[in-house]
Structure formats: structure tokens, C-alpha cells
Amino acid sequence: MALNGRDVLRKVNFTVGEGEFFSLLGPSGCGKTTLLKIISGFLNPSDGELFWKGQRITTVPAQKRDLNLVFQNYALFPHMNVFENVAFGMRMQKLAESEIRSRAGVALEQVRMSSFANRRITELSGGQQQRIALARAIAPRPKLVLLDEPLGALDLQLRKQMQVELKTLQRQLGMTFIYVTHDQEEAFAMSDRIAILNQGVLEQVAVPEVLYREPASRFVAQFIGTANFIAAKTLSSTLARCVSSGAEFIIRSMPTGETKASDGAGPGILGEILVRPEQFSVSGAPDAPSDLLMGAVVLRQYLGPQVRYHLQLLSDSTSIVTVDLPAAGHTPLETGIEVGLNVHAIDLPFYPGSLET
Amino acid sequence: MKWSGLPAKIWMLLFVLMPFLWLVGLSLQQGSQISDDNRLGLRQFERALSPPFSGIISSSVAFSFAASLTVLLIAVPVTWYVARLPRQKRKIWLALLSIPLGLNFVVRIYAWFVLVRPEGMITQFLDIIGLGIPLASTQAGVFLSLIYGYLPFMFLPLYTVFERLDNTQLEAAIDLGASAWQRWWLIIMPEILPGIVASFVFVFVPMLGEYLIPKMIGGGLVATLGTQIESQFLGSIRPNWPFGAALSLCLLVCAVGVLAIAMRILARSSNGGKGESWSPFQVH
Question: Rounded CA gap, B145 and B135, in Å?
Fold first, then answer.
């Protein structure tokens, strides 16, 4: 897909199941909005096809697609009241007035805004407008609802509450939701599956657990949660040795770019091991022979359920690793103290290839 | 804090209230400036509201209304087109459309006058394409000139209205199945109506009092309210200030009347629309 002479989407291929809560996740400029516009019919792809239950709909105009959008800025019609906004789609479909009233009533009930039917749009708060935008999209009962960062303008507390409501509503309705966001936590909180986009390329499509535990690429690993990369060289298909400290890790090679999974299976390949912060443990006695790495505490952040430590590796002073320890269950480590680190997980993802990230 | 309103109040008093009261006082004089009849009465208004002046007032209102409407009908599609151009092209168009606003109105009308004389380019051109209408000293010429003169005043207010139009609202309407026609009448029109009405009033009101164009292009042969008032105050033959004042007040009443109608339209279009009465739900 090219836009203004620039390739914004390449090799993007995925299928969304019926009744699924599917998220398109990626940093700004990754092409997710372009993808959304292609799905909704506001953009024709310069290349590629779009299918709807086996039917090619690439060139079907937006009006004719059985899907509705929830816009980032809500795009409610300010000269109509709440009820008329919700009824608009059904009026366009020329449904009977009684049908329109009952369906709009149901939709308003579903977003818990029944008592606001006669209100003017300008009288509503951001959160309320968001609900009306949702009601307007679901009232005509489309098969698919596309949501373009609909919670972006809300404050954190309201956003968290709306995430629960959106997910619950989607389950109740049984509609397919495609949700566009740059917020990884938001995507994780609601989605059945998530597609990660980066610079117009689809990096991975998977359920949240897989995205976190087995990110298909360095980008996904970094984008989802916090990632520690440790430079290593493979000894065999399941074992790698840390380049700086010589510690050995049990790994699982991940395919990257053009290399296939089997390519990374041999010994002697340079790459990086992914260790999540909570996969580290701190050994009681420093310099114990079982320690894989040694580090000095640089920064301590208290986060409630856990404490996050930033440690500078002794073997490689340019490397800072992030370690999460449960808040209740360890004696606090002072800044400057040197500790031994263990990794209490096996099957760590290994990314062969250049170490420059 | 009390004093903050003072400049506005002084301005109101000096430049609005006092001239207005002076005008009213003048219009109530029975005799013309020259005679010594100092009694007060409504004689000037009686004269203004009877033929031939009543006819001039009503034809001026109709004439200005028709000309303003024509200006609107030209300005809306042009402005719509410009407002939806890519940014760079839009800037050029806007600059070109704003040039006339930087020129003195009298200078502009003089230049135009040259073009609509019998030997002028526009008249010649109309002759060539077979629309040989004499423009100098005719109603048609004045009408055309009013449109030319006031078009620039319509572009900018309309442009700000069109530019503010939220594109995602149109996308939302498309997404919900609205056709181009439905989008125009159900989404765009209610949004721009206040702006259109305001732009119309801003052109109509000054046009009603316009005397330069009828005087120059009409050559004194096309009588409008504006030229009548002007000749009562500044005319070389028997100026009559009290009568001119009465005519001015008639003009003011017309203008205020149009404003009042416009305000009603604006008030109605901004109260949530017709949806209100259809809704079966009640606000608690």
C-alpha cells in the first residue's frame, strides 16, 4: 500500500475471526490508521485485497460495508441530540421509526446512557461522548465495529473502566471488534488477539500471552512490556553463552527477518537473548558460583506490587538490565550494592543476527 | 472592575447613541432645512412611506436581497471548493480572493466602472457572446456591479465556516451509510447554516445602504434608498436633512428587521435541531 508515493504498508496479511476482539497495535506512524481506513473503505489499497466472508470487498465503497467506525475524536453530529446521533445509521438504512426507536433505546441502554437521549452533544463530557459514539456504531447492528483509539482522550481511571466495559459489551453483542491503539496495556486488557505493526510491516499476530513470552522479533519484544537483551553466542540449538560473562542459558531460537527458525539452530551464531524483568532473581550471597551475571544497583523504583531495579552489569558496563522483584519477599537493595543475578526461566527467546538494535 | 466597561460605554455614547438621537430629532422636524418650520411631527415619515419613496424602499430591499442571494450562490460553491483544496493551493486561492479587500472600495468601483461603460471590456464581451445588455445606467448594470463589489466580503466569513467543518463528521456520515445528498443536507447544512446566515446579513445590510455603485454605475438613473439618502444630505438641488434622516431611519429599521430574522434562524438551528420533538425519551 503506497500513500503519497511512500510505502506505508507492506506484506500485511491477517484474518480476523467472527466475534473476535482484535487489536492493531503499533507506534504512531506504523500504518495502523491506514490499515483501518482500508478496512473501513475510506482508502483503496494500491495493492492487495480485502475479503469479507470469502467475498472480495476491496473496492466496495464505505457506505456499503456492513461495519461501523468509532472515531478517535468521536465525530458526533453536534446539531443533533444524543438520540438522533444514535438513530442516524438506522435512518440511513430507512428502518421503520418504531424499529429505530427500540434499537436506539437498546444501544443507549447498552452503553448506560439511556437517560441522556434528549441531551445535546455539547452538554456531554468526553467519556459520555465516547459512549454515544459507541452506541451510534453498534445501533445499526453491524457485523464489525472498528475503533480508532477511542479511549485516547480520556483520563487514566476512566480509560481503565471503559476498557472493561468495552470488552464486556463486545462479548454480549457477539460483534467483531477491530481496535486500533498504540497503547500496549490497553490492547492486552481487551484483545483476544493482537497484530503488531511496525513501519508498515506486520511483525506478529498472536494472543497476548504468546506476544509476551515468545515475541517474534526484537521489535515486538521491546514494544511489549520491558525487555532485557543479553548478547550471546549459541553453543547448540538450545544453549547459548553470554558473550561478556560466559554464563550459559537455555534458549529457543526465534526466526527473524529472512532467516527461518531452523537457520538459527546451529552452534556459533551471535545474537541476543530476551529476559523479562521478572525472570531474574537475585542470589542471596554475592559471587555465588551459580550466579549467571553480576550487577550493581543504579536505580530503585517502588511500583506497588513489585520493585524495579536498574542494574549495571559488571561484565559489560554499557548494559543496564531491568529486574523486577516482588515487593514483599526480598530485602531492599541499596543503590550501589553489587548482587548476583540468576535467570529462573528456561526456553528464553534468542534472536540471531546483528547486535545493533 | 466597574471601570472596565467605561471605554465601551463612552464609545457607545459618542458614536452610536448621540448620533442616533440626533438623527431621530432631525427626522421629527416638520420643515426642510431651509424653511423655518420648527414644529415637530411625523410628516417626514409620512412622506418616506408614501409613493414614490415607499416604492424605492421596497424595491431597494428586494434588489439588495436578490443581489445578496446571488452573491451567496456564487460564493458558497467557490468557497467550498477552496476550503477543501490541499493546504498549499488553498493559500494561493485565499490570497487571490483577499486582494480586493485590500483595495479601496471606491477605487475598485472606479476600475469596474471603466469595464462596464458602453466601450468597456465587459460590455463589449457581452456583445460578442450575444448578450448585448447595456450595463451603464441600468438596473442590470447596478445589479452586476453590486455582486462584483460585495463578493469578496462573502468569501472570508464563509471560508472560516467551511474550514472549521469537521471532516471526520463527514466520514462518520459516510460510514453510517449517508449518500452525498444526505451528507450535504443532514450534516453540512445544519453546521454551516449559522455561518451562511451571518455572511448573508453582513453583505445584505451594507448593500441596502449602498449609494456609490447605484450613483456611479447607475448614473443617477437607478434610484435606491442609498442614493435617495445621499441626495437628501449632499445633493446640490434642495437638500432636505430631516427627510434624509427619516429615510435613514427607515433603512435602519429594514436592517434591524433582517438581523432579527437572522437571529431567529440562528437560535432555532442551534438548539439541538428537530430531533428533540421526535425523541420518545425523557430527561430526568
Answer: 9
